[in-house]
Design goal:
The complex is a heterodimer of chains A (314) and B (380). Chain A is of the alpha/beta class and 314 residues long. Helices cover 33% and strands 26% of the residues of chain A. A six-stranded mixed beta sheet of chain A has the order 6-7-8-3-9-10, sandwiched between helices. A four-stranded antiparallel beta sheet of chain A has the order 2-1-4-5. In chain A, a hairpin with a 2-residue loop joins strand 9 and strand 10. Chain A is elongated. Chain A starts with a strand and ends in a 14-residue tail after the last helix. Chain B has a four-stranded mixed beta sheet, sandwiched between helices. A two-stranded antiparallel sheet of chain B has the order 4-5. The chains are: A alpha/beta (314), B alpha/beta (380). Chains A and B meet through helix 3 of A and helix 1 and helix 8 of B.
Chain lengths: 314, 380
């Protein structure tokens, strides 16, 4: 039976003593889509995902997974989902292949395509390596393979690339993209906006236990950060003053670079023409649409990750 | 409960064990080393012999006979000291803690006492006041000296009593309470079995509960169909397997190296299983109290080490002061030790039954408590 919504969350609240970790959130995940929960550490992402995975019980609200209430149907739900928990770890002395076989047996699956999973996770030449010898990226890829041993209908990936270096992160993304191509319903949590933008059909931005915006990455950017950022690299002081006189608010964000936020593409031309006629020289220029980081900053006034945002968003 | 799931867990545990050198060491090599070391140290305890240095200044037939008598049927090794040497200096130079000096005139004094005339006793010539004084040159700080002197006094008392011509009043008869004579090593082996089963099941429970929780393995497992019961059952089974392996290793080495003779029957298995229940249960309760793996390991050590020394694993309880014996009687390991000795050494089935009932009740209670307190889902 195929549901339109793989996951339905209504008025979910979760408290730990006095701490309100998740504050009355509602959303749904369509079958077959990649849904990303984007937010900083401590926003309530993991708590929410663990309630949906049936590991935690909600304080109030209802959560339905594949049409089943998560608080009552754990036994029926668990065999139909796959989970990569945050900070995934496994038995140190067991090899990649043995680990996949072990989890397949826990799910009582006799037909698990172990080789197929090893290939999907791109672990072919590591299949005889013990878990303790795997790097962070390899461990996460093994974790993803394990999350698929029971051919689940919904896959949960809780911060699959946190703590990985950029190369290892891209390799995990490759695996996740092939998952997406296979049409699995994926629930992803992340605090990397590139990850959400690259992989997700729908992004929910979560901050302090509440969903503050939801939609496709494009919709979110259009709706919340509909402007362009022009960056000029120059050694002169003149361009800054020219742009300022035109009524814009340029920001000198380092010795050589000026950033200007403009509402319309025509403004870029106006600025460039003005600079040209004034004879000011620029070394390079760059025009960009803002990303989800800017959306997050606009909505919360806080950076998604510290140290990424300077004077002007984008 | 799913046998397939339990089987999968056992496979993982056994593979981990076979690939983990330190686990192999503590389960098999460590108890064997203990057996070899202690077994060798106490190997000759059953036929202990003291060394005694004797200086015979009399150099007569009678004094030679006395020296021969002091050997006590080979229990004392006699080293003769040259009559010409200074006994005191000899003791100092050779670090000898006791030298017995038989004085010149020993044979003459003996002859007067017995009234010997031409080698034959004659009551008319007997002098009841004739006596001889032997001298002990000894180091009072050496612990074995007083034991040796006591043995010598007892020996001389016998000689004196014999000379009085009266028959002895107290005679002794010997009846052993054991069906066969057993050696220290045979007392020691059950203690080592109990100790190694205790350490492996306690630390196994700590690994299962604290370490795997801390690294996040349990969190992953909680998103799979494996149940808490399956998981705990798998681990208990694995602990029983380990206990059997280390017990077999200990027994094989004891038989091969020390030719022990022990009763190996179903009781051995019963005690091992009950001990795994007891200490597995204690371990599970501990890890609930001390959640971090390090503090749980520390807590396990706090329980294990005093228990090892206080519950009579290494030496008989009777050697300890009274209050320590009382403490021992509240330690579960004591009952395992006594039970194993009852079944393996003294072959006393009634006692084995009594001890197994005690450790069994205790084991099952802590195991149930341990299972109940073991967290599985994130309950918060």
């Amino acid at each position: 039976m195929a549901f339109e919504h793989a996951i339905d969350v209504e008025h979910l609240t979760k408290r730990y003593g006095d701490l309100l970790a998740v504050n009355d959130i509602s959303f749904h995940v369509r079958t077959g889509e990649v849904f990303a929960f984007l937010g900083p550490n401590g926003a309530g992402k993991t708590t929410t995902v663990e309630v949906i995975e049936t590991i935690r019980t909600p304080s109030s609200g209802t959560v339905r997974l594949l049409g089943m209430d998560v608080t009552r149907r754990k036994r029926d739900i668990v065999p139909r989902i796959g989970v990569l928990p945050q900070g995934f770890s496994s038995f140190d002395r067991i090899t990649v292949r043995e680990t996949i076989q072990y989890y397949a047996r826990l799910f009582r699956c006799r037909n698990t395509d172990v080789d197929g999973l090893i290939e999907l996770a791109n672990l072919k030449d590591k299949s005889k390596e013990q878990f303790k010898n795997l790097s962070g990226g390899l461990r996460q890829r093994l974790g993803i393979a394990i999350a698929l041993v029971n051919d689940p209908e919904v896959v949960f990936l809780d911060e699959p690339t946190t703590g990985l270096d950029p190369g290892a992160r891209r390799e995990v993304w490759e695996v996740l993209l092939s998952l997406k191509r296979n049409g699995k319903t994926v629930f992803l949590t992340t605090h990397y906006m590139e990850e959400a933008e690259l992989l997700a059909d729908t992004v929910a931005i979560i901050s302090k236990g509440r969903i503050i915006a939801m939609g496709s990455p494009d919709e979110l950017i259009e709706g919340n950060a509909n402007y362009l950022v022009l960056t000029l690299k120059t050694v002169d002081r003149a361009p800054f003053e020219i742009i300022q006189k035109m009524g814009f608010e340029p920001v000198q964000d380092s010795h050589k670079s000026i950033k200007v936020r403009v509402e319309h593409p025509d403004d870029v031309l106006r600025i460039l023409n003005a600079l040209k006629s004034a004879g000011a020289s620029s070394l390079s220029l760059d025009v960009r649409k803002p990303n989800l980081e800017a959306v997050f900053l606009k909505l919360t006034g806080e950076a998604l990750r510290e140290g990424l945002v300077e004077g002007v968003p984008g | 409960m799913s046998l397939r799931v339990i089987g999968a867990n056992l496979v993982v545990s056994i593979k981990t064990f076979s690939r983990e050198k330190s686990a192999m060491f503590f389960t098999i090599a460590f108890p064997i080393i203990l057996i070899l070391v202690f077994g060798t140290i106490f190997l000759n305890q059953d036929n202990v012999s003291f060394g005694l240095h004797v200086q015979d200044l009399d150099q007569t037939h009678s004094s030679a006979q006395l020296v021969k008598g002091l050997e006590f049927d080979g229990k004392v090794r006699i080293t003769l000291v040259e009559p010409a040497t200074n006994a005191m200096q000899y003791a100092k130079d050779n670090k000898v803690n006791l030298v017995l000096v038989i004085p010149r005139g020993y044979e003459r004094a003996l002859a007067r006492r017995l009234g010997l005339v031409g080698g034959l006793p004659n009551a008319a010539f007997r002098d009841p006041n004739a006596s001889v004084t032997v001298t002990y040159i000894y180091d009072a700080s050496a612990s074995s000296t007083s034991t040796k002197i006591q043995i010598l006094r007892a020996g001389f008392a016998l000689v004196n009593q014999g000379m009085s011509g009266q028959p002895p009043f107290i005679r002794a008869a010997e009846t052993s309470m054991l069906t066969k004579k057993y050696r220290f090593i045979e007392f020691f082996v059950p203690g080592i079995i109990a100790m190694s089963v205790m350490t492996s099941s306690l630390s196994g429970a700590v690994t299962m509960n604290a370490e795997l929780r801390q690294t996040g393995v349990i969190r992953k497992l909680s998103t799979t169909p494996i149940t808490r019961t399956d998981w705990i059952l798998s681990n208990i089974l694995y602990q029983v397997m380990l206990a059997v392996i280390s017990t077999m290793a200990i027994i094989v080495v004891s038989y091969a190296v020390f030719s022990v003779r022990l009763q190996i029957d179903a009781w051995l298995f019963v005690f091992i299983v009950l001990e795994v229940f007891a200490f597995g249960g204690i371990g599970m309760i501990l890890t609930r109290v001390a959640n971090e793996a390090e503090s749980a390991t520390a807590a396990a050590n706090v329980i294990m080490f005093p228990m090892m020394f206080l519950s009579g694993s290494f030496f008989p309880l009777e050697m300890m002061p009274g209050f320590l014996q009382t403490i021992a009687r509240i330690l579960p390991l004591y009952y395992v030790n006594e039970g194993l000795r009852a079944s393996m050494v003294s072959v006393d089935h009634t006692a084995a039954l009594r001890y197994s009932a005690m450790i069994g009740v205790f084991g099952i209670v802590v195991l149930v408590l341990g299972i109940k307190t073991t967290k599985w889902e994130e309950a918060k």
